Amino acid sequence: MILSPSLLSADVGNLAAELSALEAAGVQWAHWDVMDGRFVPNITFGQHVIRQMRPRSGLFFDVHLMIVEPETYLADFQAAGADMLVVHAEATRHLQRTLAEIRRLGMKAGVALNPATPLSALDYVLGDADMVLLMSVNPGFGGQKFLPVTYEKIRRLRRMIDERRLETLIQIDGGVTPDNTAELVRAGADVLVSGSAFFSVPPYESRRRTFEARADEALSQTL
Ligand code: DX5
Ligand code: ZN
């Protein structure tokens, strides 16, 4: 299981220090929630902030674009130093082209689905994505309650990926806590995003270990 702490819940006034603290805690990914006030009713940070932080961090930058027409900004985020760009299927008109363009720019490509969007949206693009992000809350805010209907969606997506013999990662975002980690991993999740539940309980190293222990528990049960 890969843990990707969502910087939305970090102390944004001290982002450089927060990124260093994550790295020192043994975390490998950082999840950037980019919001435009149109796709979701909130505004956060954009490529400018990511570009400033890039030289200060060796973390894998997992950039979740909650913006309309993300295709307009792919090259900007690549120049800013994103390692992976995740676009919402609901936000881009030509999803296959957008995913192919992200890869052409040398980044990993991810596709995100809102809770209400069916997995059939992925039928003809699964092979174009390195990761699928299933939203387990409606996007826009940290600290919301996990929607349990997500478990069944993960199990079905796991089957789709395995049947096609793909290596696509499954990422879950929204309301993830140590309490639901084992069940998420058992259902087939590979990457867990956690904002409020991760940052509210420092120190980060022991928090990371808590999440990882729950994931290991689940994996040892399935063996
Ligand atoms: C929600 C964002 C999430 C959010 C998760 O729109 O995509 O990444 O930061 O926060 P928690 O873990 O607090 O639900
Ligand atoms: Zn996110």
TrEMBL record:
Cofactor dependency: Co(2+); a divalent metal cation; Fe(2+); Mn(2+)
Record key words, sorted: Carbohydrate metabolism, Cobalt, Isomerase, Manganese, Metal-binding, Zinc
Cofactor note: Binds 1 divalent metal cation per subunit.
Protein name from the UniProt record: Ribulose-phosphate 3-epimerase
GO molecular function, one term: D-ribulose-phosphate 3-epimerase activity
The protein's annotated pathway: Carbohydrate degradation
EC number(s) recorded for this UniProt protein: 5.1.3.1
HAMAP family: RPE
The protein's role, per its UniProt record: Catalyzes the reversible epimerization of D-ribulose 5-phosphate to D-xylulose 5-phosphate.
Annotated positions binding a divalent metal cation: 31, 33, 64, 173
InterPro entries recorded: Aldolase_TIM, Ribul_P_3_epim, Ribul_P_3_epim-like, RibuloseP-bd_barrel
A single GO cellular-component term on record: cytoplasm
Active site positions: 33 (proton acceptor), 173 (proton donor)
Taxonomic source organism: Candidatus Bilophila faecipullorum
Any one of the GO BP annotations: pentose-phosphate shunt
Family recorded in the similarity comment: Belongs to the ribulose-phosphate 3-epimerase family.
Database matches in Pfam families: Ribul_P_3_epim (PF00834)
Binding site for substrate: 6, 64, 140-143, 173-175, 195-196
